[in-house]
Protein 1
Amino acid sequence: MPKAKSKLKLSYHEELKLREKILKHVSEIFRRPHGGVSPFSSLSSLWSSSSISRHSSTRTSAPPPPPPPPFKPDQSVLLVGEGNFSFAHTLAENILKTGDSIIATTLDSERILKRKYDDAHEHISALIQKGGKVMYNVDATQLDKCKELKNKRFDKIVFNFPHAGAGIKDQDRNILENQKLVKAFLISCIPFLSSRRHYSDKYDGEIFLSLKSGLPYDNWNIKNIIKSIGNLVIRATNPFIPSQYPGYQHRRTLGFQEGISKGDNEEISDKKAKILLIGKKNDPKKSKKRR
Ligand SMILES: C[S@@+](CC[C@H](N)C(=O)[O-])C[C@H]1O[C@@H](n2cnc3c(N)ncnc32)[C@H](O)[C@@H]1O
């Protein structure tokens, strides 16, 4: 075989090996039945095995499914700051399949609630029919003042989209009021969280706090608030997906106002809502004891 001219300085044996490799590759291309397809289409297989191709295929693959709603059928739930009670209703109807272990509360009196949310009575009746309990005039920042909650503990304490709603125009004051509300709520929850270590409860209680993202909500600096409390910790941050709670209709503090409020959960779908699951810092890792 005549020696191939090469600009590379290869030894005789190296050059032979290289020639063999090239010949093998080319003869393989032409040996394949390629019915009208260019033999050089084998380049596409090189492409598909390349790292660039692998990179682009991950871009088009489906994202992992979101975690399911973090409630177990045997968990006790306290809801605070309910609007029209549609969240409590769907929790009983579709998630826990019972209302027996649900206490749903609102800051409003019964009269004011019914004036603010004209669909509240339907959700409340459905919740009560499923065995749930409803309480009015419950301030989430002073749960210890509520006689009916005395000596009770919960596996989940839920506050969806807390908002002081005082109509404060000044942005800084508005943020401050909401920070105060969330901080006081979190502190108020602590004695009402179940605990495997202290009470041999089945679960360590968690606070389920849902929040909107973006401005001004990001400026509430919830992480700093939790840090400043000291003995609470964020266990998980999940997306809040309204379709996981069929029938839930987010409401503003002021009530549903035609022309101002948006239906179909638009207000939260627009805002990349998230759920923070917050627990006590020193809770043990795995469940052993049963209630
Ligand atoms: C934006 S609305 C959300 C209502 C409802 N949780 C929902 O997701 O549709 C904010 C809620 O926080 C409640 N809220 C504000 N301060 C409160 C407090 N100190 N205790 C209990 N609820 C409070 C309001 O009454 C209102 O229902």
Protein 2
Amino acid sequence: MNVSKIKVTIFCPFCHGQHLDSGKYAIKPHKVHLCFHCGKKFKVGKPTIGVKNGSDMTLES
Ligand SMILES: [Zn+2]
Ligand SMILES: [Zn+2]
């Protein structure tokens, strides 16, 4: 069984600000996140949603 978290705490690799997704991005996991602190985009390995605290919402793949 390969279960990965989709709601995770993510930090921007450029400015180290925490990335929080809102609106449509909070319901649709995505690989490329746009940092609202520095405006840069960064890629993660798996589609995820940035949340304040790591939740137990998982995605089976
Ligand atoms: Zn995002
Ligand atoms: Zn940033």
Protein 3
Amino acid sequence: MTDAPLTDTPLVDPSPADPVADTITLPPVAPAPYTDQQYPEGRPGGEPLAGLETREVSAWFGSRKVLERVSLAMPAGEVTALIGPSGCGKSTYLRILNRMHEMVRGAALSGEVLLEGDDVYRPGRRPAEVRRRIGMVFQRPNPFPAMSIQDNVSSGLKLAGIKASKEERRHLVETSLRRAGLWDEVSTRLHTPGGALSGGQQQRLCIARSLAVSPDILLMDEPCSALDPTSTRRVEETIAELRGRLTIVIVTHNMQQAQRVSQTCAFFLATHDTPGRIVEAGPTEQVFGSPRDQRTSDYVNGRFG
Ligand SMILES: Nc1ncnc2c1ncn2[C@@H]1O[C@H](COP(=O)(O)OP(=O)(O)OP(=O)(O)O)[C@@H](O)[C@H]1O
Ligand SMILES: [Mg+2]
């Protein structure tokens, strides 16, 4: 898609998620107990990791344009941080990446979102399949509170149409909880409700739930903003451990966090009610250490926003 003139008609189908999800073949899992050797870096079967790229993405809510031609490459296996003042369009951009933007009535967009070079908005592509490959973790941990920890983790399988035997399911629950850095804290109480965990543990449970369907990309919208400093650290450690296994895009208002967890950073800005756009993007060290744009320098040094 190219940047199109403003239209009342959304450029993408605004209907909610596909009621019938694709049936996806479960990646091969060994039924033996977990050992590190079974889970080498990268995707099952040694496939290369998938990167994400947007080209000239613009977005509207009704007649109001909120994003202007955002082009950004989010490298495979790395963490990309999106920073910028409130209202500049970071969450909107994140929701465009996995086709959640179109669930808002009156929302429209133009441009391309390429997952491994293939546009996720290509006609005929199913939103449910895109959302399985590009998972999302939200600001507030949102496990199913009355559902057991293990059922929370495996709850996405059914939605994604992934068929798994009881043993495969048990194995996936353990693997996902280990990868989310939560296994050691919950392995003896997998049948207890997810809602009984601490906020930080609930957020890692949500990460485990996302990981269970083997996404290529994990989107995180301020995943630590509702957490205390210790839980925040733990989630950051989890992000660091996941790096190299999948591609992560994280929105954060915490400049230290962006520097600690990301390798690439993009600074978004919307001034005087103009749509949000990227002022500067590049290696995190450069964006923070020697920004090219004065506005980036002012923002990362806490002079506004
Ligand atoms: N559902 C919606 N309907 C109409 N306008 C919306 C909707 N969601 C967001 N907007 C508008 O789009 C713009 C971008 O909002 P967005 O939530 O993407 O910003 P943000 O950078 O994530 O902000 P914050 O840091 O506060 O989370 C804002 O002007 C906001 O008011
Ligand atoms: Mg937001």
